[in-house]
Amino acid sequence: MKLFIFIILYLYIIYLFSKTKIKRPIKVCLCAIGKQENRYINEFINHYQKLGYDHIYIYNNNNLRKENLNLKNNYEFNDERMDQIYFNSNFVTIIDYRGYNNKHSQYKAYYNCYKNYNKKYDWLSFFDFDEFLEIKPKNQTIQTFLENARYKKCQNIKINWLLYSSNKEIFLFKNQSLQKRFKKKMFNEGANIHIKSTVRGNLIKNFWSRWENSHSSIDTFKSCNSSGKRVSGKTAFVNPPDYKYPFLKHYYSKSFEEFCLKLKRGWPDSTNKTKWINDLLNDNKHSKNKLKIIKEILNLTLV
């Protein structure tokens, strides 16, 4: 009789275990395209590794030129170098995207990244090298954050920028932390309605397939703000900005010298190198915001 009861209990326990789904940790990657961004690339990589990202795919959009392989010691200060040998190959993959300086190169790199890797990851983030994700409350991993029930029905989380000041710096400083140099928020709270996207993997359609916008995609995807509230998917904005849980520290200008180098480098999604300047001179809603940034950099009184 005891043996019979033992067998029944044993079979019941096996049945319960068979019904219990073993939950695996979610996997998250980051896709980024960079052009002459090497100065802070190690800080960028370390930041996202500490947040718990499983992998970073970097699209190297540097200028096409012969690279001197003997410059290993000067690597951090050479804006044309981006070699796999300098990174942990288990965490970073460098994809040669040089020569693709055509219109919408950033958008097309995002399309390529989602197409090639969306089956491997539960979520994919699409950030730039001057954007550092901050999660509240602190000491959370990206996995813990994304597993929250508030994002259960979201296919795209639109995360607002928080702009940081130039700190009245004129010249660039090599080999110094970006986040330690620039701590002051721009324009009081530094609020900005622009967003960048973190997208769920395994979507039926490529998230970047029908909308030439490197911030967000078509409205058919279920987009939400950082609090999990449903918002429009098609625009590159969330207004009012939402900083309740995550936000992106956006070091848009850095020092005055670095901002000039940014202008010289050219618009990220255009072959027209003067587009930055033309956009600043035109009287539209985007240029007004950039003009405020320039005034902030030059320490002029905002009017």
> Sheet with the most strands?
10 strands, mixed
Task: Give the overall shape, derived from the CA principal axes.
Answer: globular
The helical percent reads 25-40%
Mean pLDDT over all positions? 79
Taken in chain order, the helices and strands follow as HEHEEHEEHEHEEEEHHH
Report the CATH topology name.
Spore Coat Polysaccharide Biosynthesis Protein SpsA, Chain A
- Structural class, by secondary structure, is alpha/beta
Count every helix, treating DSSP H or I runs of 4 or more residues as helices.
Answer: 8
* Number of separate structural domains: 1
CATH architecture name: Alpha-Beta Complex
| CATH uppermost class | Alpha Beta
Distance between the termini: 90 Å
Task: Walk me through the topology.
Blueprint: H1 2-19, E1 28-34, H2 41-50, E2 55-60, E3 92-96, H3 105-117, E4 123-126, E5 131-135, H4 142-146, E6 156-163, H5 178-181, E7 191-200, E8 223-224, E9 230-231, E10 246-250, H6 256-265, H7 275-281, H8 285-297
Parallel strand pairs: 1-2, 1-4, 2-3, 6-8, 6-10
Antiparallel strand pairs: 4-7, 5-10, 6-7, 8-9
Name some characteristics of this structure.
alpha/beta, 8 helices, single chain, 10-stranded mixed beta sheet, Spore Coat Polysaccharide Biosynthesis Protein SpsA, Chain A, 18% strand, globular, 303 residues
